[in-house]
Amino acid sequence: MTKGFTFSLPVSVVVLAIFYIYFTTVFIFIDRWFGLMSSPGLMNAIVFTAVALMCVFSYTVAILRDPGRVPADYMPDVEDDQNPMHEIKRKVLLVGSLTNDSLEDELQTGGSFRTAYVISGLLLVPLSVALSVLLGWHIYLIFHNKTTIEYHEGVRALWLAEKGGTVYKHPYDLGIFENLTSVLGPNIFSWVCPSSRHIGSGLNFRTAYHNAVGASMSK
């Protein structure tokens, strides 16, 4: 079933911010710093346009793509030490791309340019800080093969394990490289634009126990 388009204030604000940052960066900053007809200006404009298109595409897919549903006949596996496959309730990590633009004060001849600089600074400074924190947070999650929900569940599981005198380890933590390939794909060249084709059904994932069993069988 397809859903009709409805007005959303947060989405509208984000879209307007993207277009404002793009047009001011290309037609004011790059044009005044390098000149759009010069080689450096044209190259910067092309690169920034490509980044902006990737941003718009990712945001559009995140809004419109159906997240999918668990099949009605799906029966999750029971988590135990003898079963390498676990029931999984995971959220998709949307790794956004980060664009850092440095704004320097310079002599402005027109009030409109000063206004554009001020508005862009008010948008870009908090946006750059927020995206930097978000990028670092997602890198941490990818390195540990966790989702945000699994991180918070792991904090409680770790507390319960320490309270019971046992050791807790995240079952999906396969090591940094294996975690990267699990999230971004086995082909390192596809990490720039990862897809989800390598994860199979999306219901079951490899665990550290699965690796341990494979290692013991190879001995």
Describe the structure.
The chain has two domains: 8-66; 78-94 and 110-219, no CATH class. The chain has 219 residues and is mainly alpha-helical. Helix 1 (9-33) crosses helix 3. 7% of the residues are buried. The longest helix is centred in the middle third of the chain and has 33 residues, at 111-143. It is built from six helices and no strands. It has helices at 9-33, 39-64, 111-143, 148-164, 176-184, 208-218.
Helices and strands, with pairings:
Layout: H1 9-33, H2 39-64, H3 111-143, H4 148-164, H5 176-184, H6 208-218
Helix pairs in contact: 1-2, 1-3
**Shape, principal axes of CA atoms:** elongated
Q: How is the biggest beta sheet arranged? A: none
As a percent range, the share of helical residues equals 55-70%
Number of domains: 2
- Spell out the helices and strands N to C: HHHHHH
Organism: Citrus sinensis (Sweet orange)
GO molecular function: palmitoyltransferase activity
Protein name: Protein S-acyltransferase
Keywords: Membrane, Transmembrane, Transmembrane helix
